[in-house]
Amino acid sequence: MSKLLPLFLIVCISTVAQAAGVYRWVDNDGQIHYSDHPTNGSESVELRESSVYTPRELPDISQDEEAADTDEEEGLEGEESVYESLRVVVPENDETVRSNERQVRVSIELQPGLAEGHKIRLYLDGSKASGELPTTQVTLQNVERGTHSLAVAVVDATDRELIRSQATTFHLQRLAVLKPLPQ
């Protein structure tokens, strides 16, 4: 548990102090400390920028079903994929996600890992929902409440789809106040 504490602190600090610096130092007892204020003997810690993607406005799904089927056939035709498996881990299939901020955290499992020059692409409700992403951890923003289908694909440098996951269904719920709360 004590080994996880520094990692937990970095994650907590990174969400609060993205604009401010993060500093690390070791006290006389060998205990590691993190802060947003520099102290004597502290060193600056570089934090990775988190991946956040805001999807574009989605067109009517009925128009895009044919295009998605065509893309899938063209991308996989005649080439053996270097990937064994690709799946959406978070959100789990049929999971209810509660987010008043309309954000959905997406975690992808890819075996073996993403090869150089390859990128991840997300499909929300059958339509391309992202550009090419270099990471398997993404936060979708501005997702409307309701039931959604999410699939991911790996594309190469020529925009050819190498592998696509099965679609995962999730339900986004937001707090709805139908009548004012008593004051």
Structure characterization notes:
By secondary structure, this protein is of the alpha+beta class. The protein has two domains: 4-45, no CATH class; 52-173, Immunoglobulins (Immunoglobulin-like, Sandwich). It is built from two helices and 13 strands; from the N terminus they run αββββαβββββββββ. Strands 6, 8, 9, 11, 12 and 13 form a six-stranded mixed beta sheet that branches. A four-stranded mixed beta sheet has the order 4-10-7-5, with no helix packed on it. A hairpin with a 5-residue loop joins strand 11 (146-155) and strand 12. It is flat and about 60 Å long. It starts with a helix and ends in a 10-residue tail after the last strand.
Write the SSE topology.
Elements: H1 4-16, E1 22-26, E2 32-35, E3 43-45, E4 52-53, H2 61-76, E5 85-90, E6 95-98, E7 104-111, E8 119-124, E9 127-128, E10 137-140, E11 146-155, E12 161-164, E13 168-173
Parallel strand pairs: 4-10, 6-13
Antiparallel strand pairs: 1-2, 1-3, 5-7, 7-10, 8-9, 8-11, 11-12, 11-13
Summarize this entry quickly:
This protein is an alpha+beta fold. The chain has helices at residues 4-16, 61-76, and strands spanning 22-26, 32-35, 43-45, 52-53, 85-90, 95-98, 104-111, 119-124, 127-128, 137-140, 146-155, 161-164, 168-173.
Q: Which shape, going by the Cα principal axes?
A: flat
Output the number of helix runs. 2
Total domain units: 2
Q: H/E series, N to C?
A: HEEEEHEEEEEEEEE
SS-derived structural category: alpha+beta
Cα(first) to Cα(last) distance is: 43 Å
Spans of at least 5 consecutive residues whose pLDDT stays below 50 are 70-78
Largest β-sheet summary: 6 strands, mixed
Number of strands: 13
Give average pLDDT, whole number.
75
Helicity, in percent?
Answer: 10-25%
Q: Determine the oligomeric state from the structure.
A: single chain
- Give me the CATH architecture of the largest domain, please: Sandwich
Percent of residues in beta strands: 25-35%
